Amino acid sequence: MQAPTRRKPPSPSASTANEFDDKYEASADDHKPLISALSSLTTSPSNASPSNKCFRYIVATVVVIVITINLLPSNKVHQAFTDLGVPTPSQIYIKTLYSKRAALLLLHDTCPSPNPKFTKSERISYYLGPNHPQPGAEGLPVVTTYKEALALPRVDVPHCIDSVGVRSSLRDLNVVDKSKWGTILEPQWMYTNELMSYTSNTVAVKFGDGKGKMCPSLLRKIRQVPSPEVGEDGMGNGIIYKAGSWRHYPENLWSTIYEDTKWENKRNKAVWRGATTGCRNCYPKTLDEEGTFGSRAELVRKIPILNKRSDMDIGVTQYTQNVNNLWGLGSYLSREEMMGDKLLLMPEGNDVATGLKWAMLSTSVVVMTKTTVESWLMEGAMAGGVEYLEVKMDWSNLADVVEWCWENDEECKEIGKKGQCWMRMFLDDNEEMDIIKTVMLEAERRQFEDGICRGGKN
């Protein structure tokens, strides 16, 4: 399949395996205290009760596995998980603590060079985009207290966050007052709190899924991919930062590698489960309504035809945004069950598909349209036929793409692996934070020049 033209960054220089191992391999000396504790744990007093002995041996088992996983060479870490077989309580414990580290080791060992695909500096440049100064830009409202952050009318209204002021207002509150003004689960506060973990200064930001064109120095969760409509440099449409990480990059995301099914054992099937997001007026009101609809809506309206095929399983899990229940509800499928299929459909919704991260981290192949928006995952730099299989915007050639995969199994498998290797760039927590901090500093500098956080009235 022909890969479209893509923006190519300069070729990154790959780290050597020795440098990698020096950074991530633990030293046996680090675990001497644990080994000493292990000795005392396994030596139970002669008068110890059976339950006491049992507890000691359970704790000792966990300690042994922790030490073993850290001392194994990188090419043995993922093999150790594979050899464990059924998920025992100890295995689940280890996966939770070490899944991201072991996933990083696995992808370092198995992904081709250059790995990662973009260097640290190239990623920073990508998120920032070209600098288009707009001095004298209209000032945005400035949020200076916790209460104001909760009172924002909508999560996607552009505004400035005064991190010092909001933190100061939090210190002045007691627990009772906080409970009156809302919980930490409110989107406005979750986004605000996350942003304040990245910077201590006042910054202009737009939370939420909106993708319209705004001030180029505005921090955003998503922006439109370059196109004739947006402008060929396109990336002047805001600065991307890592927003909503609790949803898009949760801790259990990285366990996808261990829940995955080997390609040879996956079913020849294309699967999708999702809600009717996208927009309130881009879905048909009746089954026979004609017209041009949103990309996800085009997939959904084809459910009756596509599901006649034995190699497709497409279903709606929730009807939202005033969409009529015209196609029923699909049966529940867990992430692990869907990774038992070779093709994972990922239609854009309100913005990028939330499930795209775990789908790419698996070895199944992502099937989606050419992306129109991009986020921290850098979807705009991915190429159809390389990291994913591309379909038309109306999904009209989905059957042809599916059949191509069945007829070209090895090539299809390779695309799945390249998609997984794309995720290698986002696994190093220290590097991620370095990139975030650098992006924030440059965004603050550009915003100061534009003056968008001065003179705004809340």
Question: Can you characterise this structure?
Answer:
GO terms for molecular function: transferase activity. It holds the Pfam family Glyco_transf_90. This is Glycosyl transferase CAP10 domain-containing protein. Belongs to the glycosyltransferase 90 family. The protein has helices at about 15-25, 30-40, 50-70, 75-85, 90-110, 120-130, 145-150, 165-170, 175-180, 185-200, 245-250, 255-260, 295-300, 305, 335-340, 355-360, 400-405, 410-420, 430-450, and strands at about 140-145, 160, 200-205, 220, 225, 240, 265-275, 310-320, 340-345, 365-370, 375, 390. It starts with 16 loop residues before the first helix and ends in an 8-residue tail after the last helix. The chain folds into three domains: about 15-110, no CATH class; about 120-240 and about 435-450, no CATH class; about 255-425, 3-Layer(aba) Sandwich (Rossmann fold). With about 450 residues, the chain is α/β, with parallel strands linked by helices. The chain has a five-stranded mixed sheet with strand order 1-2-3-4-6. Strands 8-7-9-10-12 form a five-stranded parallel sheet. The radius of gyration is 25 Å and the shape is globular.
